[in-house]
Amino acid sequence: MITSVPRRDRRAVITGIGVIAPNGIGTDAWWAATTAGTSGIGRITRFDPSRYATQFAGEVDGFEAVDYIARRLTMQTDRWTWMGLAAAGMALDDASFRPAEHDPYSMGVITASSSGGNEFGQVEIQALWSKGASHVGAYQSIAWFYAATTGQISIRYGMKGACGVVVSEGAGGLDALAHGRRAVLRGVDTIVSGGVEAPIGPYALTCQMATGRLSSIAEATAYRPFDERATGYVPGEGGAILLIEDLESARRRGATSIYGEILGYGATHDGHHPWSLPPDARQLTRAVALALRDARIEPEEIDVVFADGAGSRGWDDLEEQALHAALGAHAANVPVSVPKTMTGRMYAGGASLDVASALFSMRHGVIPPAVHVDRPAAGCGLDIVREASRAADVRTALVVARGYGGFNSALVLRRTSDCPSPPTPTGGPDESSTLHL
Amino acid sequence: MNQAPFTYDDIKHILVERIGFTADEVPDDVDTSFRELGMDSLAVVELQLTLQQDYHVTIPDEDAHAMVTLREAIDYVNRQRLVAGAA
Amino acid sequence: MRRTAITGIGVVAPGGVTRDAFWETLVSGRSATRRITFFDAAEFRSQIAAECDFDPQAAGLRPQEVRRMDRYVQFAVAAAIEAVADSGLDLAGEDRERVGVALGSAVGGTTLLESEYVAVSDGGSDWLVDPDYASPHVYQGFVPSALASEVSVRFGAQGPSAVVSTGCTSGIDAIGYGHQMIQDGEADIVLSGAAESGISPISMACFDPIRATSARNDEAHSAARPFDRERDGFVMGEGGAVLVLEELGRARARGAHVYCEISGYAGRGNAFHMTGLRPDGLEMSEAILDAMRQGDHVPADIDYVNAHGSGTRQNDVHETAAIKRALGDHAYRIPVSSIKSMVGHSLGGIGAIEMAACALAIEHGVAPPTANLTQSDPECDLDYTPLVARRLPIDVALSTGSGFGGFQSAMILSREAA
After folding, report:
1. Phi first, then psi: what are they for C125, rounded to 5°?
2. What number of other Cβ atoms are within 10 A of residue A216's Cβ?
3. How far apart are CA A134 and CA A128, in angstroms?
4. What mean pLDDT do residues A391-404 have?
5. Neighbours of B83 (CB within 10 A)
6. Residue A309: which region, alpha, beta or left (left: phi > 0; alpha: psi -120 to 50)?
7. Domain ranges, ordered by start, for chain C
8. Is residue C168 flagged as an active site residue?
């Protein structure tokens, strides 16, 4: 029964995760690389980047779409959708969730999108302008637009419930998950959510470079958020698809892989300027504060922060200020990480992958590092996990994400009593299988 | 102008390269319909677009809807080329 | 339970770039479709569209806004300006942290992306495009989130802000998103709607091969003929609409004029095909039924249906079946109409334009007609309000939408109840 308003007896938990990242395809490979601090950023190989100021990116090497989807479907879709379909399949497998066994209307798909089917679109628009309108193919109307990946996932898995696509650039991954939570709380049992992005192509890169926010340092270490040498970010492709379920519904079907609960969400907009730095960190602070309030938790309960990590001084400063303002004294003590330093900023995929990182850190008791942040900016005052992963008992995580244009979003995730016990961080025998709520 | 006839191999090439079939997915029986091949309306359009662009035939709407099997597509192309050649 | 009122409406549409001009177009039954003037469409199969005669400066946009905003964003800002004025709200005096934005678009900044592409690729001749020729604002075209952020910025709105991009149901779905923001207490006011400016070569070209758009180029003014026996596809349109959504309690407290409230919203997917529709309209009817349940509506409550009515052969059959399945015999007793017959199909924008039409239909007690409907199709046998607007009390209006990707959406607006 779908209700008009959210029901407080329902709880949105994440039961499956699929990852395609520049440092690993599949959660096993990605998490191993992430905890080892292995970056997937390198010089662009997909095309010759020599004429571009930004020549480094996080590319997903070795991704063969036909390993996941029929070749015929690959001709009708962009790389972005291939990755989305592949990651969705991984997430469903991870959750041991078989869509065919469920009422089609009890399942929906709500993904984040930012730039859509870039490469497919560039091929078609080139055909149009170099050869003529009659050279635009039959699939252009379904491959480029921002809803393509949600549409294809819903068709592939027979999901007829509420479907959606949320766009807020880098904040989209959190906004899509939150919108998925809205649907679950209103009665949809299962939502495929998260997002992926495929922004590495000549025209796509050109568009991104226009913001002035990409680094032109020709090194794999170029993207260094919170570092005094921050010069911008590097784009990446890929992301994460996450399966959200109502907790009761997940229990009933015997789900064993429950990662955690989406406990709280907050979103604001700077409302200031289409691209310039806002005068203060008030709205970013407020997004975090709203998420904490929605989660009904105190700042001290946060065990790790996965930061937005813009990678430019002004934006990094504001995030530092926001974390201090929202978390108070606790801001200096809570570990902060930016695993995006190993993948690049992935737009719709970025915050989605950060949520995956948060949930994996809960499950495995390890916080991955922010790499190459060798010289944290003076006055930063944050405990940035650098150099190596850190063992930690992570029960509650905060993920922060910003989108170009002024979007600010924050998500609080919590390990629930249904989650498998993480290993004891000290390495001793794991005595307890019951976790405190 | 003498053109080589448009053959089953040509259409098979299009199905593999443009529609994404693997070689063994395309049956030898030229009377196989597009529907039997599992081609949806968009795939049929894509095939017809390729015929128009690469083989320079024109397929008006009514003919497009009437083209249902591989043989019909092959014959259509050859008929048009015959007419063009004679003109 | 928090309820959502509509207290302001702004519209940029073909045939009338203000709310009043738009309504006048609808009531008159005039089609605003014509031969495309925005570019040379001679080599295209469909050469017609419903274009907006839009003057951004007259609409209140400043030169720098015009320079950096793609056309569809300009539509949204213009419509938002009109909607906010209509609502009587002085946003500067409101708690702007409680003002959100939820706007829809299907193809986003394609117009800007295309014009920039032509320059950087030198007419499509170079895969490795030259960034030296890119405008500093091209990123505004690259990500459709610019639609929401520009409206947030324009009004200093600091509440949650997002773009919903679900193809041709973006308009309904964005307003549904804004409605949920209010229901969930995330905002008290939401500027919500959608906009699209898809009359450009790449957007027109992608519908030609699949014959989704009308090729009735020599009869541009009557080419958009939903439900008609001779219909041959939709006519591309452009435009946008923004509604001021306001929590009903505070709207009443300030003595706002309430057009109506949103009494139900639902979405489903057909999980069938990216463009194809089955003739049974099943999933659309499920969306309608869900929207009705939320508002405690029975079929007899519905006084008017604003159909998706795109005018493709398959849609109009699909939708007729959906309406019948959801409303039963009552479907035959009420006016149904498609305003796409007059303002074209502006993809992600039209859903919001149609919601504006529904709110105005309730306000004025007039159901807009379906223009150009001169020959009935036995497969489409409902009362589609042919040619002439119909005066009748409308307390409850249902709007439906359907789009590529299988999206099926429904929203119900109701006259404000006590």
Report:
1. -90, -10
2. 15
3. 7
4. 98
5. 10
6. left
7. 4-253, 264-414
8. yes
Distance from C115 to chain A by nearest Cα, in Å?
11
Which of A419-433, C59-73, C111-125 shows the lowest mean pLDDT across its residues? A419-433
- The residue ranges of DSSP E strands in A250-373, in sequence order, are 260-269, 304-306, 335-337, 366-367
The minimal CB distance from C143 to the residues A51, A160, A167 is found for: A167
Fold of A12-252: Peroxisomal Thiolase; Chain A, domain 1 (3.40.47)
Residue C311 has pLDDT above 80, yes or no: yes
The structure tokens listed for C29 are 């039954």
The predicted-structure confidence for B7-45, as pLDDT tens digits, reads as follows 999 999 999 999 999 999 999 999 999 999 999 999 999
**Rounded Cα–Cα distance for residues B47 and A204 (Å):** 29
Overall average pLDDT of the C219-237 stretch: 98
Fill in the DSSP letter of residue A305: E
So what's the pLDDT on residue A435?
A: 28
Q: Which of A75, A131, A142 sits opposite B19 (nearest CB)?
A: A75
- Tell me which amino acid residue A214 is: L
Q: Which CATH architecture has domain A264-413?
A: 3-Layer(aba) Sandwich (3.40)
Active site includes C221?
A: no
Domain C4-253 has CATH 3.40.50.280: no
Entry pTM: 0.97
Asked if residue B82 lies in contact with residue B2, where contact means CB atoms within 8 angstroms, the answer is no
3-state SS record for C188-247: CEEEEEEEEECCCHHHHHHHCCCCCECCCHHHHHHCCCCCECCCCCECEEEEEEEEEEEE
Tokens of B24: 């063994």
A36 touches chain C (CB under 8 A): no
Q: Is residue B49 part of a domain?
A: yes
**Inter-chain contact A137–B20, Cβ cutoff 8 Å?**
no
Amino acid residing at A362: M
Over the stretch C383-410, which tens digit does the pLDDT of each residue have? 999 999 999 999 999 999 999 999 999 9
pLDDT in tens, A284-294: 999 999 999 99
